[in-house]
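Quick one: structure tokens for this chain, please?
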Amino acid sequence: MVRFRKTTPILLAEDVKACAEFWTALGLQVPVTVPEGDGIGFAIIAGDGVELMYQSFSSARAQRPEAVDRVDRSVVFLEVTSLDAVLAALPQTETVVPDHVTDYGAREIYVRDPAGNLIGFSQFGWQE
């Protein structure tokens, strides 16, 4: 039987630094970065049990172009303790799906990160 330990999405971006700043505004840390030219080619974003990685399209293509040939954007879904805190931390972020209550009772919002990925934030157990 396969036993899993964790999952870590690797998201591709034109501007890894902007993506790291998106997540640090939410209180996560950037413990690892790898430089690329004048910017960042790779970053690990981590904290509160969450780990994401961002890699620049150019460095991914340089390593294995066939592996990222048809990769464009992704969707990441995260459960949070306070959706209001997310909204306060990201006032200028493009909202794709506005604040709403789902059929399963969660309060959610979907935004775009600086790379164009769709990021969903969900709060369960909230009260109006």
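The mean pLDDT is 94.
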